[in-house]
Amino acid sequence: MGEPRHHCKLWLLLLALAPWLHASTGAATTFTIANYCAYTIWPGTLAGSGTPQLSTTGFELGPGQTVRLAAPPAWSGRMWARTGCVFDAAGAGVCQTGDCGGRMECRGAGATPPATLFEVTLGKGGGEDFYDVSLVDGYNLPVVAIPRALRGPGACNATGCLADLNRSCPTELQVVYGAGAIACRSACEAFGQDRYCCSGAYGTPAACRPTSYSSVFKMACPRAYSYAYDDSTSTFTCSADDYTVAFCLPTSGIKESDAVFLGAQIIGGRGTGAAEANDIAPPAYGNGGAGAYPPPTSDSYSGGGPGGAYLPPVYNYGPGGDRIPPAMRISSASTTTYIRPWLPLLLLLLCFT
Ligand SMILES: *[C@@H]1O[C@H](CO)[C@@H](O)[C@H](O)[C@H]1NC(C)=O
Ligand SMILES: *[C@@H]1O[C@H](CO)[C@@H](O)[C@H](O)[C@H]1NC(C)=O
């Protein structure tokens, strides 16, 4: 009869060590995905080959909502957001931009271009992370990536594209829906020519140079990849515990010294980036470029005092930011909180009665 008790002690020991085990072997990095857009978006995640998919590969994110996802060391992959999606109860449907195989969960499918991409390769054993925001597959939403909780050297620049490229997009690259452009294609996707795609005879960094089309992207968003070999000005390194990937971040959410590099023009002390434009109805005429709108009369983002960083609430699900599908948020969160404290007691009861 000593056997079961012996097992019990083992389990109790494991239980006691669980938090430590989680901390040392578990996720080293989190991604805080924040929706500052005035509308719902559907972020997607895709792991690079050889690394596991994250706990979610696609989910709904309402305005002002934030989800934190944990990633293991050396994880690499990309994130983007879909717009204008309609899904049925089974998760099948379609999105206007960024679609991934017509499903809520992308399950290994990438974004249909055009889509603004955040790309990252995490370091191993505390090594450097590499990250970028890419317009190589076109543009559908303003995205900024900001490293947080820095734990090593590295410039750790914020990168991304806050400009409204829907509006400054050359006509021949526009994806038009209803009254205006909803996304901007890359020249590679639009024309399929080697010189735009850096393929064939143009398949080397020396042969593939910026074009008038990639220059439109580069001028609008100097830190984002504008074509495939744009590495020197577009790849950043850091060692951070968290990368905030913010969609439609208002200008007040970034450092002023970063503004021009991220495509957020400050005119008259006030940002005129894409996110601000989302607050008000776009004009019927297009292509005015950033700054064509009059500033909105009320600024819903400036609650945070100087710098005015508006932070949406963070819904952090479980240690390390376990993924919870939005539809299950409340029940899962409370399940986690209420069940766990009872587990040790339950085990004790089972072991010693
Ligand atoms: C990155 O940030 C550093 C300061 O932290 C700055 O000197 C450098 O110019 C930035 N790099 C780019 C490409 O903007
Ligand atoms: C570009 O179009 C997408 C798709 O409709 C839209 O969600 C987004 O708000 C537009 N971009 C900006 C900066 O307004």
Automatic annotation (TrEMBL):
Q: Which domain of life is it from?
A: Eukaryota
Q: Which InterPro entries match?
A: Osmotin/thaumatin-like_sf, Thaumatin, Thaumatin_CS
A GO biological process of this protein is: defense response
Its keywords, alphabetically, are: Plant defense, Signal
Statement: the UniProt record of this protein carries the keyword ATP-binding: no
**Signal among the record's keywords?**
yes
A Pfam short name: Thaumatin
Give the signal peptide, or none: 1-23
SUPFAM superfamilies documented for this protein: Osmotin, thaumatin-like protein
Kindly give the PROSITE patterns that the UniProt entry links to this protein: THAUMATIN_1 (PS00316), THAUMATIN_2 (PS51367)
Name of the featured protein? Thaumatin-like protein
- Give the species: Triticum aestivum (Wheat)
